[in-house]
Amino acid sequence: MSCREESGTSAQVEGVDVEAGGGCPSGGEPARLCVTNVQRFSLHDGGGIRSVAFVKGCPFRCPWCCNPENLSFEPEVAWHGRLCIGCSLRASGARDANGAGCDTSCEECPTGAKEWLGTWCTTDDLARELLRDLPFYEESGGGVTVSGGECLAGAARQRAVLDLLGRVHEGGASTAIESTLATSLTVAPSELVRACDQLLVDFKVADRKRSLEVCGIDVAVRDGNLAAALAAGATVVARMPIIPGFTDGDDCVRANARRARELGIARADILPFHQLGESKYASVGRSYEMGGVPQLVEASAERAATIVASEGLDVTIRGE
Questions:
Q1: CB of 125 within 8 A of CB of 31?
Q2: Is the pTM of this model over 0.85?
Q3: For the chain, which domains are there?
């Protein structure tokens, strides 16, 4: 990204409202977001060809999360053992939490075994980066999606995300947000709807108590925010990850579909469990609770889709 010229050193985190989800530094400076990646040519995050900006930081802890690099709100160092040649190991043999055994900086690492995760970008710079693909959006009916982490965690971050999407709108692209919507919203629902053409909202563990225990997500907060957004004219897609042992039971799938329909949502996307994020956990020094769990078979995804359709929703698998 062009904004990668802003180094992700810890010094840049000072003065930023990290607990509230990052976003705008104090002192009237331009709005910023800490971004780990811009994924281009995505086909499953809002329709058409899209560029997805992944905002770093999430207050929730879903055991199956496939983006562990976006859990921490601060830039951090990842270490990829397969690339390390051991050129400057510590004499003491001490290793960091992610396995790194040296004090070499990311910039000086000769093989890229160490890399910074998270770059502070102004919303202006990030919008320009995202609008580079405008011809693809126009041709395919796609646009820009802001994901995470949890891109709406905290008041400052909410303002920064809306500022970013407003700039993208001005540039002629459609916008979407992928969120749990289970955070305290300080922006008005009308502002959110004006900035965002589509909300992709997670429906995970249906039972409120169980959801709080497993993920820390309060579905009552989500539903309150959803009701307000829908009343303001939001277009919402319910995103339903089907996770073995957590959300794959027929009762959970049916309860999620029924709740989405009751709220006034017309469409749901079934997201089958996969293991694409498993290898990333060790690189950021985190344990992975779903290690070794087989990916969801197609028949299970189709069964979930059948249940959702029986509740009166239009349904797709993987957003296709």
A1: no
A2: yes
A3: 2-75+118-317 (3.20.20.70)
